[in-house]
């Protein structure tokens, strides 16, 4: 530390800001250079938005226009919404896949919130033996890659789960085959399980930081755990519940890996991500409706994102260790 | 626009302990606004719900989901209401709890048509549960009446004998078990051992656990192992009575708890009720499948034969996974040589810094820039010489993590307290909301390469060919561009001179590197070396035509162009987190440094950066985990062709396309092993914090 301090005071020269007045050509040029960072920032912003902008513009141009010129040469006369008509048509089926996405994302958002809120309260305010160890074990699963669970999970959804008793050659069915293979239900059930460590971690951070006096006062008034949770903790936790809800909604709406594993080729249950990926897969033929499809797919999360960005950022800041 | 203005409002809020990812502060946000948004979301959800109900197929799914959720919620709330009685009304609790157990037993036996008289419509269906509830409820009520141990023993034993006899007697012929003495003995002994062991582990007297274990073992051995239907009424009475008596004995040993014990029961049961559902989901969806994957990775492709570590060996032997045959090529590659030169510069600067400040390398001193850039160049050179999935994955992790963190940090610093900060950050953050599939589609259009005889529709190739035209042309634009490059070079030389005069050679390293890069660009552009830069080719007839780059197809550089997609998304993430951390650095520290005469960049390197080092660690670990699992981008753009395969996509292909469960599981385990250090680091950090 002492070395740093000496260097800091040892350099001792006047900073560039105090050198600005002298008016020599070098200094004036230096002043100009000092303004470059702002320019760089906005240049980055422009570069960052160009890909999306191009997609957006191309989604309103017909097939021939897209193939003839780049989107930056767009002419007002060639703008059309035909691509959107096509993508929503029965053949492309974006409408149905939007429904499927909602059928996955809505339960996969609401159900984990409830279950994780119970667990977060339990870990934060119910004293029991082994609480800390269990909590750390749960939260350690945050970083576990989902890939390690996918193969057995798919097998479970296809055929249920059973265990063969040793010595006896007898098979006991633990989880019967609910005929969930290739359905949206199997996808949101999987999401619910995978979301648990992160949700518990995020909600526990918040719920455990609520003031202790609150709980003691409620206890003295004769409130039981259920009442405290329902009347006290849940209303106070709305901001963090919202943060998690946005996070989880975006995650499940945008998921491709789990949906593709569980649903795969079952066209009637495909969410938007699979539909778009498949459109992108058959080279050339449907390329002209791809921008419109991708834009519709991104529209819902973008609306959620811009409307509730504050809560999303809060969720990110509090839980930036998700796996 | 209104929403844009407000975006990221939190990041600067002083009540955000973001630097250590420690959590959110309570009571944030304006409540009315939130309620309006929640109401809006609710209306939207209702709309979707209505839409869903119109669709026949969705309706049935929805109905199932709602029924399942409502039933689970009912059970959960019911359990809470029941255990609410523990502290104040023990007798009531005991009665209801026993009745519930009886009812469940009744449902299991009677509902599954195991008992006589079941299966004749709704009325007979209720009889079983009701009878069970009445019998057990009576037992619970009676037990709650007396504290006398001998009376309790008598009540428990008597009731359990009666219940065991009745259950044994009412089993249908088809379910009467043919007893298998060996299985019964084995399972009972195992049950006793496990039960007693668990009791000892929890520091209880072992007898209680042994009794319960024996009962469960007996049930497993007598009912589970037997051929149902082979027995008689006698065997089913034996099979039912013994465990009933064992449980009865255990019940007789208990006493009615005093208030303190009841509080303990309340807390323990509440812990199960509140945490149980989450743990159940985690075990079924995450832990047990992960263990099974580890097991499957040791079996062959159909999961029939045990093959040991062959699957892992197959991954490492595969030339597509790891190809080091040409690794010596890296010594002749330009980036490698450049990197070595830069590293040599770093050593020289480091030695001089060692003399001046006592430390060769520390955050923010001039050694860092050539060291990091040199290392990257050396790695780049190594990468171009080696191939394979594992190398690709390594590269994804190194490049995406480094570039995303560095860019995020740079943008956070650039945007800090500048006009339009929120708008700029909001736009850079936006890709986080887009799916990886969507992002891949977006960039696919950016990378499009079309035949050079037609116009380019992808931005990158259009720019590249445009640059080539500019470089090889001789018109006014070329002259302007050349003059512009000269001006930039002159400007850079001025900065270099100023740095040399004012601060000495140490601060001149960065402008020096920039001058070398821009100078090289200038030499290439004007055609002093080579014919120019950009996408052009000399056609057979001597004229100059366009030359596209196949960004997605050209190995190995296509990997980097795919990484750009991930960087485009993840930079926003690291920017938001690092920006919050920068704003959380105490202003007094910065003021003090400025008073001591530190320049802006010195403040950044010497004060801000060390302060946010922990947060950078969080960002880096999060990015590593995220990048290790990258799947969507590769799947959508190349599906692993053109030498761009990564572990996650290969795992998906092996397990679900080629149906090779063993190899797929082995690849999944490799991904797991790769993120294991990060998991351990996270656990360590959490243990320190709590």
Task: Explain how this protein is built.
The complex is a heterodimer of chains A (323) and B (690). Chain A is mainly α. Chain A folds into 2 domains: 20-84, no CATH class; 86-318, MetI-like fold (Orthogonal Bundle), CATH 1.10.3720.10. In chain A, 67% of the residues lie in helices and 3% in strands. In chain A, a hairpin with a 4-residue loop joins strand 1 (161-165) and strand 2. Chain A is globular and about 70 Å long. The model of chain A is unreliable at 1-22 (pLDDT under 50). In chain B, strands 1-2 form a two-stranded antiparallel sheet. With 690 residues, chain B is mainly alpha-helical. At the A-B interface, helix 1, helix 2, helix 3, helix 4 and helix 6 of A face helix 1, helix 2, helix 3, helix 11 and helix 15 of B.
In summary, what is this structure?
The complex is a heterodimer of chains A (323) and B (690). With 323 residues, chain A is mainly α.
Which descriptors apply to this entry?
heterodimer; A: 323 residues; mainly alpha; MetI-like fold; two-stranded antiparallel ribbon; 2 strands; 67% helix; globular; disordered N terminus; B: 690 residues; two-stranded antiparallel sheet; 27 helices; 4 strands; 1% strand; elongated
Computed over alpha carbons, the radius of gyration of chain A is 27 Å
Give helix % range of chain B.
over 70%
**DSSP strand (E) fraction of chain B?**
under 5%
**How many helices of chain A?**
16
The oligomeric state of the chains shown is heterodimer
CATH topology of the largest domain in chain A: MetI-like fold
Low-confidence runs of at least 5 consecutive residues of chain A: 1-22
> Care to count the β-strands of chain B?
4
Q: Summarize model confidence as the mean pLDDT of chain A.
A: 80
The SS-based structural class of chain A is mainly alpha
Largest interface between protein chains, with number of residues from each side: A-B, 149 and 166 residues
What is the H-and-E element order of chain A?
HHHHHHHHEEHHHHHHHH
CATH level-four homologous superfamily name of the largest domain in chain A: MetI-like
- CATH level 1 name of the largest domain in chain A: Mainly Alpha
Mean pLDDT, all residues of chain B: 81
Quick one: how many beta strands of chain A? 2
Could you give the distance between the termini of chain A? 36 Å
Helical residues, percent of chain A: 55-70%
Domains of chain A, number: 2
């Amino acid at each position: 530390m002492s070395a740093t301090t000496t260097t800091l005071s040892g350099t001792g020269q006047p900073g560039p800001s105090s050198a600005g007045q002298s008016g020599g050509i070098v200094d004036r040029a230096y002043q100009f250079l000092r303004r470059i960072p702002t320019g760089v920032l906005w240049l980055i912003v422009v570069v960052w938005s160009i890909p999306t902008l191009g997609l957006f513009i191309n989604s309103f141009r017909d097939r021939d226009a897209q193939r003839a010129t780049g989107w930056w040469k767009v002419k007002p006369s060639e703008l059309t919404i035909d691509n959107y008509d096509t993508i929503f048509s029965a053949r492309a089926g974006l409408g149905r896949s939007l429904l499927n996405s909602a059928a996955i994302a809505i339960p996969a958002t609401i159900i984990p919130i409830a279950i994780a809120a119970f667990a977060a309260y339990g870990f934060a305010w119910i004293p029991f033996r082994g609480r800390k160890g269990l909590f750390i074990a749960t939260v350690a699963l945050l970083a576990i890659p989902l890939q390690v669970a996918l193969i057995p999970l798919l097998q479970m959804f296809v055929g249920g789960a059973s265990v063969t008793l040793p010595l006896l050659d007898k098979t006991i069915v633990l989880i019967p085959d609910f005929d969930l293979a290739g359905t949206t239900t199997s996808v949101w059930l999987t999401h619910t399980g995978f979301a648990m460590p992160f949700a518990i971690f995020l909600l526990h951070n918040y719920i455990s930081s609520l003031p202790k006096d609150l709980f003691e006062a409620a206890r003295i008034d004769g409130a039981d755990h259920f009442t405290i949770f329902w009347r006290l903790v849940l209303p106070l936790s709305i901001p963090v519940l919202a943060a998690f809800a946005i996070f989880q909604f975006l995650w499940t709406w945008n998921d491709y890996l789990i949906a593709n594993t569980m649903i795969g080729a079952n066209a009637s249950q495909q969410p938007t991500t699979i539909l778009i990926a498949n459109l992108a897969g058959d080279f050339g033929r449907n390329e002209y409706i791809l921008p419109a499809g991708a834009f519709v797919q991104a529209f819902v999360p973008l609306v959620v994102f811009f409307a509730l960005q504050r809560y999303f950022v809060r969720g990110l800041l509090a839980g930036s260790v998700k796996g | 626009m209104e929403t844009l203005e407000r975006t990221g409002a939190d990041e600067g809020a002083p009540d955000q302990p973001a630097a250590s990812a420690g959590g959110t502060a309570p009571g944030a946000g304006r409540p009315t606004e939130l309620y309006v948004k929640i109401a809006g979301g609710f209306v939207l959800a209702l709309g979707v719900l209505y839409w869903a109900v119109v669709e026949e197929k969705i309706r049935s799914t929805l109905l199932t989901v709602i029924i399942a959720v409502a039933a689970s919620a009912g059970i959960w709330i019911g359990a809470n209401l029941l255990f609410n009685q523990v502290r104040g009304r023990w007798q009531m609790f005991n009665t209801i709890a026993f009745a519930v157990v009886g009812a469940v037993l009744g449902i299991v036996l009677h509902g599954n048509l195991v008992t006589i008289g079941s299966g004749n419509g709704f009325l007979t269906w209720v009889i079983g549960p009701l009878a069970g509830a009445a019998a057990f409820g009576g037992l619970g009520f009676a037990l709650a009446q007396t504290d006398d141990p001998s009376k309790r023993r008598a009540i428990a034993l008597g009731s359990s004998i009666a219940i065991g006899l009745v259950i044994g007697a009412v089993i249908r012929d088809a379910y009467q078990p043919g007893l298998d003495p060996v299985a019964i003995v084995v399972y009972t002994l195992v049950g006793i051992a496990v039960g007693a062991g668990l009791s000892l582990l929890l520091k209880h007297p072992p007898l209680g656990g042994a009794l319960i274990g024996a009962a469960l073992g007996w049930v497993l051995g007598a009912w589970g192992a037997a051929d149902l239907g082979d027995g008689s009424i006698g065997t089913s009475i034996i099979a039912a009575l013994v465990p009933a008596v064992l449980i009865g004995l255990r019940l007789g040993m208990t006493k009615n708890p005093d208030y303190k014990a009841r509080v303990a029961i309340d807390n323990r049961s509440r812990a199960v009720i509140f945490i149980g559902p989450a743990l159940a989901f985690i075990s079924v969806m995450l832990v047990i499948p992960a263990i099974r994957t580890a097991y499957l990775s040791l079996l062959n492709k159909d999961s029939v034969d045990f093959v040991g570590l062959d699957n892992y060996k197959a991954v490492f032997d595969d030339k597509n996974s790891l190809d080091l045959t040409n690794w010596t090529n890296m010594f002749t590659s330009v980036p490698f040589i450049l990197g070595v030169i830069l590293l040599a510069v770093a050593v020289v600067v480091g030695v001089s810094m060692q003399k001046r400040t006592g430390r060769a390398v520390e955050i923010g001193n001039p050694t860092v820039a050539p060291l990091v850039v040199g290392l990257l160049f050396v790695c780049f050179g190594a990468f171009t010489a080696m191939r394979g999935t594992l190398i690709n994955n390594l590269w994804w992790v190194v490049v995406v993590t480094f570039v995303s963190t560095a860019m995020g940090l740079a943008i956070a610093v650039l945007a800090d307290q500048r006009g339009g900060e929120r708008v700029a950050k909001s736009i850079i953050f936006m890709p986080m909301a887009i799916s990886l599939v969507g992002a891949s589609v977006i960039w696919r259009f950016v990378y499009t390469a079309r035949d050079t005889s037609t116009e380019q529709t992808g931005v990158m190739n259009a720019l590249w060919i445009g640059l080539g035209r500019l470089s090889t042309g001789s018109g006014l634009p070329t002259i302007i561009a050349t003059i512009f490059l000269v001006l930039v070079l002159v400007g850079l030389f001025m900065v270099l001179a100023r740095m040399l005069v004012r601060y000495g050679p140490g601060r001149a390293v960065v402008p020096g590197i920039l001058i070398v890069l821009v100078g090289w660009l200038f030499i290439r552009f004007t055609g002093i070396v080579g014919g120019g830069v950009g996408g052009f080719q000399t056609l057979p007839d001597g004229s100059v035509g366009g030359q596209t780059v196949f960004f997605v197809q050209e190995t190995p550089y296509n990997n980097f162009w795919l990484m750009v997609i991930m960087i485009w998304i993840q930079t926003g993430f690291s920017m938001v987190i690092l920006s919050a951390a920068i704003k959380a650095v105490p202003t007094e520290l910065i003021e003090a440094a400025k008073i001591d005469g530190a320049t802006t960049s010195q403040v950044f390197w010497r004060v801000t950066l060390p302060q946010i080092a922990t947060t950078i660690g969080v960002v880096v670990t999060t990015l590593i985990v995220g990048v290790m699992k990258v799947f969507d981008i590769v799947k959508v753009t190349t599906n692993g062709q053109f030498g761009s395969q990564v572990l996650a996509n290969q795992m998906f292909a092996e397990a679900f396309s080629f149906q090779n469960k063993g190899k797929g599981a082995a690849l999944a385990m490799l991904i797991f092993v790769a993120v294991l250090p990060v998991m351990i680091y996270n656990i360590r950090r959490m243990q320190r914090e709590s």
